[in-house]
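User: Sequence for YbhB/YbcL family Raf kinase inhibitor-like protein below. C-alpha cells please.
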Amino acid sequence: MAFMLESPAFRNGEPIPERYARDGENVSPALAWHGAPAETKSFVVIVEDPDAPTGTFRHWAVYDIDGGRTRLPEGAPAGARAEQFPHGVNDFGNPHYDGPQPPRGHGVHRYRFRLAALDVESLGVPPRAKVEEVWREAGPHILAEADLVGTFERR
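Assistant: C-alpha cells for YbhB/YbcL family Raf kinase inhibitor-like protein:
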C-alpha cells in the first residue's frame, strides 16, 4: 500500500478553503494518512509555499507525532499543543500553523503539506527550531514521504 496523505478539507491540487487561510480562521485542516512503513516511530508534518516571491515560505511544522497515529484533527495547533507535539517556528516567526497568505494579486500559490514517516521517536531539535531546521533534521530519518498540495489565491 502506498503512503498517502489526504484531507477532508480539499483534494490534491484543489483550492484550500478560506477557513484555513491566515485571513480566514487560520486553523489547520484535518489531515489523515495511511500506508506508513511498519517500522515508523514518529511523523513530521510541514507546510510550505514554493511560489512565494522571495523563495519557499514555510508555514508550519509539527513533529514527534507518535508513529501509531493516522491523523491530525482540524485546528491541530491547539490540539497538538495539548498532546505535547512540538512545533517549529514558521517564516512568520510563529510556533504554530499560519495558513496561506500570498501577496494580493500575485496569482495562485501552491501549498505543499509534506508528511514524513521517521525511524526515530524524537528529532531532538532545540526549542524554537525553525521549520527548515526541523525538516533538515528529519531528512536522514525519513522512511517514506507523502504530500498533499492545495492552492490558494488572494485577490
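The chain has a mean pLDDT of 94.
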